[in-house]
Amino acid sequence: ANAAHNVAALKRLIGSDCQLMAVVKANAYGHGDLEIARTALAHGASWLAVAIPEEGVRLRRAGIAAPILVLGAVSPHQLELCASKDLVVTIFQWEHAQALSNLARRLNKTVKVHVKIDTGMSRLGLRPEETLGFVKRLLGLPGIEVQGIYTHFACADIPNDPYTRWQWQRFAWVLLELEKAGINIPLKHCANTAAALLMPEARLSLVRVGLGIYGMYPCPVTDDLRAVDLKPVFSLHTQVLDLKRIQKGTAVSYGRSFVAWRDTTIALLPIGYADGVPRRLSEQGQVLINGKKYPFAGRITMDHCMIDVGDAEVEIGDQVTLIGRQGAAAITADDWAAWLDTINYEIPCMISERVQRIYR
Known about the structure:
The chain is of the alpha/beta class. Helix content is about 30%, strand content about 25%. Helix 7 packs parallel to helix 8.
């Protein structure tokens, strides 16, 4: 329900003249690609984006017919896979363009491509000054339809960052050069979630939204961001498997990193780093039990972790929330990101496949 709310809210923000591309790569940031893709398409998205062709093929095999852009570089041996499943290919290398054209002619198909411009990430893409010549040559290749052109911002999650403004100006210059040459590429896009929220001028004909769909903000929430009320899509829960009363001086878990400084109760949880709860949370992470926060006790192990619940009235079978809300108390993906010195994007991606996904 929250994913549907977020997609609809973002679509209202960008307006009817701008398309919304739901980024569902990496199993929809760990949320489940098929479920999120279907929800997004039902509530305002008209495009999907994946990182690798195999992710797009999985969506096609599930019966999803919407246009799908492969954001990552596609190697020559993957081109036929893309063409056979009508996946839109990101292109920025001439050798790949030629190979794709040859393949399209052999299959008697027209393959759609989006040209990627590197305006400042120093990752995938053409340099701005190379773009016009490349596109002119690309338009001459049979079997290829140049449907889109795009770039990606490096610092859009930093409000009012001058580097983002510089990247935007470089991309705008590329579009102007193409226009002067009489070349009109239908879809132009550069805005990720952060830019879609903070830079209305960068929405163009399409925006690529990943993080926002999952109810997370790309930067600290300010008045500018509160215009769109995003709701977290995922929470992470387990149950108390066992309780053990230990005496002061008793060591817990590997390496004896935790030694009880008082008599206390240890709650055993059947979840560990193989499930996506990293060992680095051992020293500062917390969980919720019955609406109260309790710290980890000792090192998180592959399949289990231990919680110091002191003298609290905790019972076997009690629900434990690692990410989510219990009553007025909450632990968020942003909390995990702060504890782990990372970004909130990474948190849901860490949750492994052996953790059951339940959709409501």
